[in-house]
Amino acid sequence: MAGYLFRNCAAIVTDAGTADGVPRDTDLLIEGAAITAIGKGLAAPEGVEVIDARGWFLYPGLVNTHHHFFQTFVRNRAELDWTKLSVIEWLDLIYPIFSRLTEDCFYHSSLTAMAELVKHGCTTAFDHQYNFPRHAGKRIVDRQFEAAEKIGIRFHAGRGGNTLPKSEGSTIPDEMLETTDEFIADCARLIDTYHDRGQFSMRQVVVSPCQPVNCYIDTFTESVALARDRGVLLHSHVGEGESEVIKARHGMRTVDYLEKIGFVGPDTFYAHCWELTDAELRQLAASGTGVAHCPEPVYLVGAEVTDIPAMAAHGVRIGLGCDGAASNDNSNLMHCVHSAYMLQCLVASRRTHPVPDPRAFLAYATTGGASLLGRTDIGRLAVGMAADLFAIDTRRMDYVGTRHDPASLIAKVGVGSPVDLTMINGRIVWAKGEFPGLDEAQMAAEAEATLSTIEF
Asked: What is the model's pTM?
């Protein structure tokens, strides 16, 4: 069985959530897709490649729990800047652009986002794909799975959708609308075609109606029924400014509305949740519902810094996400770990609960993300776990004075460049500045060519 032996690792952050989970000057052995040994002086079985890891810090692969890959095609555009527009003006401007994307746009934008994630140590990604223009057809998520296989990333596809027309209070153009029956039927098709429940699964599907304000209630009730019948997860946008709208429509805020219809529980996670009250956070903790926190949109949207200390104090399950390029112009989850910590420090004096330790933020992006995605085989470096990891060579000026605390390094100091190696399921997918077996320049040129077909 082929594999790798990382010999003499300067540090192995086996579990970011534990104080003693950083063995030094240690070896890590991988055979096939799994980690089979961690210890000093390990022997290399026949056929295993030995990698000299002196000076390297090894970390569990990062787990991205909320993104919109298709928005990669609207990056770095000053005319779409949130700071110059109201939310309604921004939505009216950007959604018509989204509605013009083609099937090829969805493929190449997904490939672009996945490549950037992998370069920066992300090994598992959840994408909330809620944009289904009628002209683009129903095979958009299929093309995302195709892109994931090419890059080699572990991919959880959130099949989203919008059903409420603009005439009834949503922000969605007619070209992007589906019926509830259309949405549920395609969710079922994707589950039947791609969802793999096995150990070290590389493909899973999450039923993910876009958000309560843009969907009929039956879209959510039918989502609950389908997900529970098929044993898959549920996801949606919650608590990002819509609670009073939901109260006006349904007589209750979003958390109560979703709890009433059963869109809660250990098989459910929400994105954002920055506007939730302390009582609502306690409700999430009690039901086991998780939160995918996306720190970097705070810079652009400027609403509130999500109260992560309160979530942590109440026992809410927390993961991290990049979010889409409409509110975060990069797909760099590594950077989000640093941003998440620094933003909490910025508002610490206004919080009831103290900012969690820096290593907790790395844990949100590893074990926390694994928990949100219902995975027990990723998120930690331990015998029997999937060989999902990234490596940083710390023998550089960037890391002088930081190497005494590998678990806090990413949150407190930040890592500004691509990692030295990313491995997923025992396969090296990024090393020495390259994607092995892929031509990055060609992929970028093809993506740019596809982007040029869209009118802005």
From this structure: 0.98
